[in-house]
Design a protein that fits this description.
A hairpin with a 2-residue loop joins strand 12 and strand 13. By secondary structure, the chain is of the alpha/beta class. The strands form three sheets. Strands 8-7-6-9-11-10 form a six-stranded mixed sheet, sandwiched between helices. 51% of the residues lie in helices and 18% in strands. 42% of the residues are buried. The protein has three domains: 109 residues, ATPase, nucleotide binding domain (Nucleotidyltransferase, domain 5, 2-Layer Sandwich); 166 residues, Nucleotidyltransferase, domain 5 (2-Layer Sandwich), CATH 3.30.420.150; 195 residues, Orthogonal Bundle (Hypothetical protein af1432), CATH 1.10.3210.
């Protein structure tokens, strides 16, 4: 049985960490070692938006030490990810290039949605507990250094996920001068975050019953709750008792009591206040703290993609549901989206040999269909541009910023004139490969959308055949499709230009 050794590296806001895992198809994956270094990259990143040369030097020394450990364990693959601290930088590309030249390690900056998607994949690694818990109303709290992610589940489905800029380190840095002027630091934090909490509650918790709360990460389990917990559960009574013990204690005293670094101890109170506030608005009586981190999610994702494990949870569906909820928020037509999706996927699946796109690109097409009409909520006269702006400014869990840009561009050019490469390169950072992907998705989206121009879902079924570089769409409909077929000409021309095949539409009238 082939065994692979994989390393996951997290360049976080207050800690640089690495776990090495052994992967096999027989046993899945298991942790071999866990190494952590304290390094507060977020302190400068959240204030001056740069990392000092001294910090970069120290970071490179840590990563070189990680490389040594990786060699000792015979690591064959790795993934190194930077999170919120790097997202805040003015010059992340420059720093990443320095790291590569000095260590040989490639570090990728995760978007917020990618980071938290991997985070909750780490919880899914504990299959039984996660699968059972999300059958009822469940919230996942992921308290990071720079931000907080709240994801709501119900009936095994992701309902919504929202990011709030209230991470523990960000709060500490914003309030560090005011902390010296009060004896009730916890109340100061509550006032600071109250507006965001109230807004979240009003928008996303109406008539929603949250039975369970899952705490992502291992910060509290490694500090306040470092002793063994029964079933990894913290009752509300236990939480409140510990809250009273640690909140408002001087940092030095807290550091000595918990046996942790003072800088680490300074994050305890902000984290505890955030958790308590959310427990209050959820009305939750306990927290489940599995003690997993982003590193576990990175390993789980790698193991899943390379077929060492098979997840019982459908993560792709979570991304689609998130997009569906965004479309619903902007009053997009549900029936039109479903009809257009069926046509778009029929075209995509029948032309695989021509377009060369894979499973991920198929998902991006579905997302583009889901969101192509959301701009009408803002302006009926500038749908494409408004849809583009909405998508670019809305986080979609599991997608990188680049993928969101691809979807937004395909939606923009669904109705607007397509901008060819000379213009496109001046306006976007997408490379040649991604530019071609935008063109392909746009071509399919235009045809599918035009075939339901009336929004009456006249296409009852569609059959596709590809032969001798000609794609035939045989449409089954009992209704008059003169409008749809009459407006397809320019869409067909662009489709044929992009894919280099002829497109022929035939109608099969029902008897």
């Amino acid at each position: 049985m082939a065994v692979n050794t994989f390393a996951a590296i997290d360049v976080g806001a207050y800690e640089i960490s690495m776990k090495v895992f052994e992967l096999s198809k027989k046993t899945g994956f298991r942790e071999l070692t866990d190494i952590r270094y304290r390094l507060e990259l977020g302190e400068d990143a959240y204030t001056v938006r740069k990392i000092s040369p001294e910090m970069v030097d120290y970071l490179c020394e840590i990563l070189i030490d990680f490389k040594r450990v990786m060699a000792e364990f015979g690591v064959t693959e790795y993934r190194a990810c930077a999170t919120s601290a790097f997202r805040e930088l003015l010059n992340p590309v420059i720093v990443i290039e320095q790291i590569f030249q000095r260590t040989g390690l490639r570090v990728e900056v995760l978007s917020n949605s990618e980071q938290h998607f991997l985070g909750y994949k780490s919880i899914a690694a504990i299959e039984a507990g996660f699968k059972k818990m999300i059958q009822k109303g469940t919230a996942i709290l992921d308290v990071g250094g720079g931000s907080l992610q709240v994801s709501l589940f119900d009936n095994d489905t992701l309902v919504t996920t929202q990011s709030l800029k209230m991470g523990s380190m960000r709060i500490r840095e914003r309030l560090k001068d005011l902390e010296k002027t009060t004896i009730h630091y916890d109340q100061l934090i509550e006032e600071f975050i109250r507006n965001d909490l109230t807004c979240f509650q009003r928008l996303y918790l109406k008539d929603r019953d949250i039975k369970n709360v899952i705490l992502m990460g291992d910060f509290l389990t490694d500090t306040i709750y470092h002793e063994d917990l029964k079933d990894n559960t913290i009752t509300r009574a236990e939480f409140d008792r510990r809250y009273g013990d640690v909140v408002n204690k001087p940092v030095q005293e807290l550091s000595e009591t918990l046996g942790i670094d003072p800088e680490y101890a300074s994050l305890v109170t902000p984290t505890m206040v955030i958790c308590r506030c959310f427990l209050d608005i959820f009305g939750a009586e306990q927290l489940w703290a599995p003690g997993v981190s982003l590193l576990d999610g990175i390993a789980y994702d790698y193991a899943e993609r390379h077929k060492y494990i098979k997840s019982a949870h459908n993560f792709e569906n979570d991304i689609l549901v998130a997009a569906r909820n965004i479309a619903k928020r902007y009053s997009s037509g549900k029936a039109h989206i479903q009809g257009t999706t069926d046509i778009a996927l029929a075209i995509f699946d029948s032309t695989k040999k021509i377009h060369g796109m894979g499973k991920r690109e198929r998902l991006l097409l579905q997302l583009a269909v889901q969101l192509h009409d959301c701009g009408k909520y803002i302006s009926m006269g500038a749908v494409s541009e408004c849809s583009y702006r909405i998508i670019m400014e809305t986080e979609i869990i599991g997608l990188s910023t680049e993928e969101r840009h691809i979807i937004a561009s395909a939606v923009r050019y669904n109705n607007a004139d397509f901008r060819y490469s000379s213009q496109y390169e001046q306006e976007t950072a997408l490379d040649r490969e991604k530019y071609l992907l935008v063109a392909k998705l746009t071509a399919i989206l235009r045809i599918a959308n035009a075939m339901d121009r009336s929004h009456y879902q006249k296409v009852e079924s569609i059959r596709t055949t590809l032969k001798d570089r000609k794609l035939t769409l045989l449409v089954d409909s009992s209704r008059d499709m003169s409008l749809e077929l009459g407006l397809l000409k320019d869409k067909v021309e662009f489709f044929e230009e992009v894919f280099g095949i002829r497109l022929e539409l035939r109608r099969k009238k029902k008897v």
